[in-house]
Design a protein that fits this description.
The protein is of the alpha/beta class. It contains 15 helices and twelve strands. It has helices at 2-9, 25-40, 44-51, 99-115, 136-149, 169-183, 204-222, 239-250, 273-281, 298-302, 341-349, 357-360, 363-377, 383-408, 412-431, and strands spanning 55-64, 70-81, 87-94, 121-128, 159-163, 231-235, 254-260, 263-266, 294-296, 308-311, 330-332, 353-355. The longest helix is centred in the C-terminal third of the chain and has 26 residues, at 383-408. The protein is globular, with a radius of gyration of 21 Å. The two termini are 27 Å apart. Bound molecules: nicotinamide-adenine-dinucleotide (NAD). Nicotinamide-adenine-dinucleotide is lined by residues 163-166, 208, 235-241, 259-261, 298, 312-314, 334-336, 361, 364.
Length: 435
């Protein structure tokens, strides 16, 4: 359908320095979106509506540094869609975050919420900064000013932030407090991923990794593989990577490779994951110097001979350059966008079952939804109840996507987009376009 191409090249999303590089996460997302739109036979207007973020905000975030000097950071918040409900999505602090990346991640959130049947639209935010170079007090001032600049955007019924790369429950607590101070009442439901004592949910911290493992186990069973007979490699050992590794380890899987930003660690006999987590926690949150392992690079980790590969670090790790070397039978995308669009066909050709990010890492947003529900009810569930409900929702999302994949003879990634874009488009058609 030619108009898709036009939209794409006429800069529907064009930035001041347009990125037409297919390896960019935004282009990868658009490529998949276009495919699903064709399968769903979306008309042009609907395509345009769903391709355009409803709101994009860029703010300057001035911070008085500990030295007394003022530094100005750039902050972003993009609401991609709010058809299914209030928009929801994380905030990342990173020196290389861009509005382009934030837009891609915001759209991903729309599809991700729709894939797990959570009544939220998609959003994402970020501040371009290097959190490693900021003191705690500077980080707090930066967070509070970023929040103050976005008071009109955020809200329990409007737009609900959550943690993402380099943000945590303390950052969420500062956002909640800043928002509450300005609305003159405690508004716990304005953010999720809060500390439990402030209205956070049991199980939220582990939710993304737990969801990754739930869908990985579902995929293993489709392939007739037993969890306690498989080998696993995990890229990234932060929140998502370490929890995924831990829970696969608890299932009896042999975790033969793990990594963080400093490199990878390999042991064909398996790594003692609880020990590695303890080591990382006592070693400035890095695995550097981890004993009894062979040191490998992050690139080598991806190509390790294993059954399950869990990329849980960052975008664009598997591209057309290395996709042909991947030996895993299953890739469960813990990170957002670890596989670029032009690697998809290579992985498919090699018979690798890819559980796409919008499904595999949707456990975080699912428990965020539970947290929001609990905050609004003022009634909190046990961890066991949270995990049970999470497991049920992730399992059923996996089955829904798996059957779309079988019915249309398309990959799990294509099926996840077809399923979720179909849901949003159907809801939009019923709501209609407000004049
Ligand atoms: P995190 O900051 O806790 O951990 C990131 C890990 O990746 C760290 O171990 C870091 O050392 C490693 N890393 C960073 N850059 C790397 C590189 N270039 N090569 C190899 N390793 C690298 O972050 P997280 O919360 O675990 O998030 C990881 C990914 O999962 C991100 O893409 C994020 O968007 C996605 N995600 C997170 C959540 C969540 O609930 N935390 C939910 C959905 C998706």
């Amino acid at each position: 359908m030619p108009y898709y191409k036009d939209l794409y090249t006429t800069g529907y999303y064009k930035e001041p320095g347009p990125k037409l590089d297919k390896e960019s996460p935004f282009e990868s997302m658009m490529e998949r979106f276009r495919f699903a739109a064709e399968v769903l036979k979306l008309d042009e207007g609907m395509f345009q509506y769903l391709a355009s973020p409803v709101k994009q905000v860029i703010v300057s975030v001035p911070v008085v540094m500990d030295s007394g000097k003022i530094e100005v950071f750039e902050g972003y918040r993009v609401i991609h869609d709010n058809v299914l409900g209030p928009s929801k999505g994380g905030i990342r602090y990173s020196p290389d975050v861009t509005i382009d990346e934030v837009k891609a991640l915001a759209a991903w959130m729309t599809w991700k919420c729709a894939v797990v049947n959570v009544p939220f639209g998609g959003a994402k935010g970020g501040v371009r900064c290097n959190p490693n170079e900021l003191s705690n007090a500077e980080l707090e001032r930066l967070t509070r000013r970023y929040t103050a600049n976005l008071l009109d955007v955020f809200g329990p019924d409007k737009d609900i932030p959550a943690p993402d790369m380099n943000t945590n429950e303390q950052v969420m607590a500062w956002i909640m407090d800043t928002f509450s101070m300005n609305s003159k009442k405690t508004e716990t439901a304005v953010v999720t991923g809060k500390p439990i004592i402030l209205g956070g949910s049991q199980g939220r911290k582990e939710a993304t990794g737990r969801g990754v493992v739930t869908v990985t186990l579902a995929a293993l069973s489709k392939l007739g593989l037993m969890p306690n007979k498989v080998t696993v490699a995990v890229q990234g050992f932060g929140n998502v990577g370490s929890i995924s590794a831990q829970l696969m380890y608890e299932q009896g899987a042999r975790i033969i490779a793990i990594s963080d930003i400093n490199g990878g660690y390999y042991n064909k006999d398996g790594i003692d994951i609880p020990h590695a987590i303890e080591y990382m926690e006592n070693n400035n949150r890095t695995l550097q110097g981890y004993p009894d392992v062979e040191q490998i690079s992050n690139e080598e980790l991806l190509e390790v001979d294993c059954d399950v590969l869990i990329p849980a670090a960052k975008e664009d790790q598997i591209s057309r350059h290395n996709a042909g070397n991947i030996k895993a039978k299953i890739i469960a995308e813990g990170a957002n966008g670890p596989v670029t669009a032009n690697a998809d066909a290579i992985l498919e050709e090699n018979g690798i079952l890819v559980i796409p990010d919008i499904l595999a890492n949707a456990g975080g947003v699912t428990v965020s939804y539970f947290e929001w529900v609990q905050d609004r009810q003022g009634y909190f569930w046990t961890e066991e109840r949270v995990n049970r409900r999470l497991n049920r929702m992730m399992r059923s999302a996996f089955e829904n996507v798996y059957s779309v994949s079988n019915n249309h003879k398309i990959t799990m990634r294509q099926a996840a987009y077809v399923y979720s874009i179909g849901r949003v488009a159907t809801t939009l058609k019923m709501r209609g376009i407000y004049a």
